[in-house]
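[#protein-structures] MJ: dropping Cytochrome c-type biogenesis protein CcmG/DsbE, thiol:disulfide oxidoreductase here for a structure pass
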Amino acid sequence: MTTLTAAAAESGPNGAGGGPSETPGRRASHTARWIAVVVGIVVLGFLAVVATRESGLNTVAPSPLTGKLAPEVTGSGLDGETVRLAQMRGSYVVVNFFASWCVPCKEEHDDLVAFSQRYEQSNEARIVAVIYSDTPENARGFFAKNGGSWPVITDPNGKVALDFGVRGVPESFLIDPDGVVLARITGSVDLNGLEALVEQARVMRS
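AK: finished. C-alpha cells for Cytochrome c-type biogenesis protein CcmG/DsbE, thiol:disulfide oxidoreductase:
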C-alpha cells in the first residue's frame, strides 16, 4: 500500500517522475469504468450461482441487457394511469410480458399472484406486467378472472417489448433495486423459482 501511494505521488506534477497529472475528467472516466467492472462482477457472480442451482424456472437465458440499466419504461396502465419503471427503484422488479391468449401465461399467473402477495407488505419485490400483442380489454378480462393487482402497461406499439428484445411470451426480466437487469427468464416462472432468484440476488448484494 505504501509503495503504491509513493508511486502515485511521484507521477504527479511535482513528483520526480515528472509524469502528467490526472485531470478531473480522467478520474471521472476511471471511476465510471470501475463502477461498470464492479456491476459486471456482481451480475456474473449472480448468474454463476443461478447456473449451479435448481431455480424452478423454465429457462434463465442470456440477454444483451444483463448487467446494464433496464430500458426506461413509461406507459399507460389499464386504468389510464402512468406507469414508470423508474418509480420502482429500491425494489426487485419482475417485468413480465404476457398475453391473454398465451397458455403458459395462464399457467404461471397463480405463481405470480402468490409472489406479489409474498412481498406485498415489504415491497422488497414487485411485479409490472406488459401486454404483448393483445388488447387492454383482453388484459382486463384476464386479470378479472385470474386475479393480480400489479401495474399493467398496455404497450400498443410494442415499444417496450422491442426495447427489451422480447419476441414471444411469457418472458420476464428480474431487475435489481438499482435498476440493473439481473436475469432474463424465457417461458413460465414459478413462485419457488422467483423467490430463489431474489434471495440469490440479495446474497450477492450483501
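MJ: nice. The beta strands are 59-61, 74-76, 82-84, 92-98, 125-131, 152-153, 171-175, 181-186.
AK: one more thing. The CA atoms of residues 117 and 148 lie 9 Å apart.
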